[in-house]
């Protein structure tokens, strides 16, 4: 149940963030918006790691493709800000969710990026439906 609530909260925050990023598009370029969003996030993350986790920040031991998320984030913030100005926050969010569902289904189905694709079958062979999806609620 806690995951369900956090995901609802995340969706609410994302909707507000998209609208605010669209408003920033009236004042800054799309790459400027992305710089602000990612710069603030990086500073907060570094502060968290230094103060709370008390761990050194290391870039070793992680597959190189994981760092592509930074570039993906730039593309997401830039395109969502630009599209929000053109078609509005609701349409942009709806179309974005469709894209997220498609890419998530493909990653889960084929087991890309270390995802266990065996856990995403409709029937595990024991007569039960896939517990992985039902665990969310």
Alpha carbon gyration radius: 18 Å
> Stretches where pLDDT falls below 50 for ≥5 residues?
120-129
DSSP strand count: 0
Please state the oligomeric state of the protein chains shown: single chain
Quickly count the helices.
Answer: 5
Largest sheet: none
N/C terminus separation: 5 Å
The sequence of SSEs as H and E is: HHHHH
Share in β-strands? under 5%
What general form does the structure show?
globular
The whole-number mean of residue pLDDT values reads 78
Structural class per helix/strand content?
mainly alpha
- What is the helical fraction, as a range of percent? 55-70%
Explain what the structure shows.
The protein is mainly α. It has five helices and no strands. Helix 1 packs across helix 3, helix 2 packs across helix 3 and helix 3 packs antiparallel against helix 4. About 7% of the residues have low confidence.
How would the blueprint of this fold be written?
Blueprint: H1 2-24, H2 30-53, H3 68-87, H4 89-110, H5 131-134
Task: Give a nutshell description of this structure.
The protein is mainly α.
